[in-house]
Structure formats: C-alpha cells, structure tokens
Amino acid sequence: MPILFPISIIYGLIMRLRRLIIKSEEFDIPIISIGNLLVGGSGKTPFVIALASRYEESTIISRGYGRLSRGLIEVSRDGEILCDVETSGDEAMLMAKLLPNCSVIVSEDRKDAVRKAVNDGAKLIILDDGFNRVDIRKFEIILEPSKIINSFVFPAGPMREFSFTKKYADVVLKEDRDFTRIVSFSNLKDKMLLVMAISNPKRLIPYLPKNGIIAKKILPDHAYFDEEVILTLLRDSGADSLLVTQKDVVKIEKFMLPLSIMHLRIEIKKPILKEIDEYINLYY
After folding, report:
1. Cβ neighbours of residue 231 closer than 8 Å, sequence gap 6 or more
2. In terms of domains, do 164 and 216 share one?
3. Shared domain check, 143 and 99
4. Is 213:183 a contact under the CB 8 Å cutoff?
5. Total domain count for the chain?
6. The CATH number of the domain where 166 resides is what?
7. Largest CB tally within 10 Å, which of 97, 118, 121, 128?
8. In angstroms, rounded to a whole number, what is the distance separating the alpha carbons of residues 147 and 69?
C-alpha cells in the first residue's frame, strides 16, 4: 500500500541507525544467532532444534513470544522442564521438550540470559530470532524462503529491515537450497479437525494430508486454546481427532483429546554444518 511507504522508510532507517550506533558486546563463548529479515515464520524454531541437537551443554535463548510471564525464566536445565507452557511460550517449550541434552532460557533481555548461561556452564549459546540483537557479538545465520515476493520494510511489506542488511550476516541460507523441511505425521484419522496457531499458516498447506481434513480453525500465532471451544468444534465437526503441529501440541495436550500430529524437522546441508563447527572450534 503506497500510503505506508514513508512509514516503512522511517522504520527501516531507525533499524539501520541501531546497527550503526549500538556497540556489540563480546562474550567468551560461541554464540550462534538464527534469525531472518521477514516478519513471521521462516523455520527458525525447527532449525534451532536441528542445530542444537548436535551439541551437548548448549543453551538456547529465546524471547519467549506469546508467554504470559515477564523477565528471565529458565524453561529447562539439561532437559529437565522447570515451568509450564504459559510461562515459557509455545516455541520455547517445544524446544525444551525435544532437546533433552540442552537448556532453554526465555528473556526480553538477551544479554542477561547470555550471562546466566555462561555462569551455569554452557559451552554454546544459540539465540533464537537473534538477528536484530545488535548488542551481542555472534555468528549470524539468516534464513530465507526460497522466494521473496515483497521486499518492502514493515508496515508496507514483511521485512524487518532493509534487504541489504543481510550483508551483516555470516551466512544467508535459502530454503530448498541450504536446508529442507521434512514433514511427517502420526496418528492420522479419516476425519480430522485442523487447528493451528502459527505464523503464516499458508506455508504449511502444501504439506497437509490431501484427505481427512473436514474442518479448520486457524488462530493467531502463539494463541492459547480454550478447551471448551475446541471440544465444541470437535463435536460439531464430527472429527475423530485434532490435526495439530508440534508447536501447538505443547499447548493442547493437557486437554487429553485425540491428536493427529504434524511433525516438522529441518535437514541442514553438510557444508553449512561444517562452517558452523569451524566457528565453534575457534573457542576450544
């Protein structure tokens, strides 16, 4: 929308200015940031899970989007879950449950979380959605979809910063070239109610089962589910189960309803993993 272009330019310039005036702090530990320039989902969470699963004694630091808490919260320590999903947020809880050899911290202040992780003995820190944390020195990985249709900065487009800002990244990875989504399902039924609360749900449409989905309920990203509403939808649709993503399972499993689960994992190309290993080895 043309009327939004001036706002986008101002917003982009502010973000650009931040990179020029804010000094980054160096920590004596390898820190890897997984981020993107696009607002919304680009596979960051499954990418973080795929990467962190390769290293023990690592700590993932996230803001904890959608959580009903504030401040620094330990979600898990060496695989032990320390809070509920409302306190952690859905993505942080998913990472905590799928990574038994890692720790997960959520905090608005990422530097405080880095200091805590270092004090607790972490050997590697992975920042989830950390590209715009310009006050921390880190190895920058940007994830991009295979095609970018609109390159305007928010609010006229989906970009968080000007497109050329990717030059600050150490590695820019494109989906289907450098990493691949692999989708599988468990407990599929003949009649399923699709329930999602994720960013940009349209991106998952090509991966959905061609048969069996008889109704849909799409909520905003990170939204929590009302048990009575879900029960009513399930009953009225006549579905045998809820088809949900792993990200939504952590919020809905306590309802003890029949679930069909969409599992998403990322396969990272070996040359990328080698480059990351080389960066980590500089510290040890």
Report:
1. 255, 257
2. no
3. yes
4. no
5. 2
6. 3.40.50
7. 128
8. 36
CA dihedral of 28, 34, 36, 41, whole degrees rounded to 10:
-150
The pLDDT of residue 157? 66
pLDDT reading at 6 higher than 80: no
Indicate if 191 and 81 belong to the same structural domain.
no
Is the domain of 85 the same as that of 172?
yes
Hey, which residues does 172 pair with through a beta bridge? 142
**Helices 44-52, 90-98: crossing angle, 10 deg rounding:** 20
- The tokens describing 88, both together, are 């952690």
7 and 72 belong to one structural domain: yes
CA 28 – CA 221 distance, rounded (Å): 35
Instruction: Return the biggest CA–CA distance within the chain.
Output: 58
**Which tokens is 76 given?**
């898990």
In a shared domain, residues 44 and 167: yes
From CA 134, how far away is CA 31, in angstroms rounded? 13
> Which tokens in the block code for residue 86?
């409302």
pLDDT digits 0-9 by tens, 170-183: 999 999 999 999 99
Tokens 């990200």 appear where? 247
Question: For the segment 100-134, what is each residue's pLDDT rounded down to a tens digit?
Answer: 999 999 999 999 999 999 999 999 999 998 888 88
Residue range of the domain that includes 96: 2-178+269-281
Q: CA–CA separation, 53 vs 100, rounded Å?
A: 9
Pairing of strands 241-245, 58-62: unpaired
